Amino acid sequence: MEIDKLSVIQTANHNLMNTYGRFPVVFVDGYDSTLIDSEGKEYTDFLAGISVTNLGYSNPKVKDAIIHQANTIIHTSNNFYIEPQVALGKLLCEHSFASKAFFCNSGAEANEGAIKLARKSAYLKYGSGKNEIVAMKGSFHGRTLATLNITDNEAYREGYGPHPTGFLFTPFNDIQALEKVVGKNTAAVIVEPLQGEGGIHPVNLDFLAKARELTEKYDCALIFDEIQCGMGRTGKLFAYEHYEIEPDIMTLAKALANGIPIGAILAKGDYAETFAPGNHGTTFGGNQMATAVGKATLQEILENNLTDEVYRKGQYLKAKLQSLQEEFDLIKNVRGLGLLLGMELNIQGSEIVKEMLAKSFIINCTQGNILRFIPPFTITEAEIDAMVLALKGVLEDKGV
Q: Any idea which residues bear N6-(pyridoxal phosphate)lysine here (predicted)?
């Protein structure tokens, strides 16, 4: 069936809420690291649905899991045991710090649940008063009313007040500032080991070690948000493995089921035992479809040792981007881990994103001037070379 792009765009403008600044492209198919639009044009994807389709667009195990589950059962209530949910929970716990998991539908839901888990645990131990959540400057943790208040962007919060209280910010990677804000009223400190929306900033080992020390001192939770940087994206299955410091709670989503909506909260120790029936729940979270595909996705990463491949490709991409930095003064920095890389510019990046799209390459800009490169793990060195060559041409046209 042919799709009329103009009709789709006009209907969207008429019937969908205006929450996205969309590009005038309608994708209808894809394979590996390639997307195909309604007019048959192919694009090389360096965004992966914002770190979602890590295994690309044609992974056979993911497709088989979807087909199998669609042919059997898609959903039942969590009032009953769900075999693929149990299997995925077991697999995640076996390959992480955690002892128990809870499944939901998105990253924002996972972070919302993690906040509840930390506060509930503090309440059960100490009663009311120990409820502050300390987040980092530059963070992004979601758009629900609670997660907006641990997301460091005032524009996202404007117009949604009054806001819930008990949320504090401290500068990322600033140990002295962290020591001043964490104390007896702290229920949790939440950190992205590699900030994504905030500009591709990795956490410093010393800062993370201090966060671990302070949360142990004040008996509060250390939460790692690995929604964007987890699931192999950094060259380790989980980003915290680069630092050998374990959290008490970790949140996952995005790539956990390669595009099927799912989120997860992983926890250990007392935090894993905090929730009781009625304390938290979800209708759709952890259903058969989502967790079957999540299991297939995780197995594909583990069985094929894809983290080593991500590390190698990430090093190759980073070196290529750094070669552009040597050539162009408008590039301030190239940073990141694995296949989650950012290029900081002296100019705004939105026009560069548009020009790269016209050249059939999908990249992204965050914080106004940081180009973000998050390709599927299926990206090839030849595709990286082609993208870097196209980017070089765009930068040359800037005449800087």
A: 254
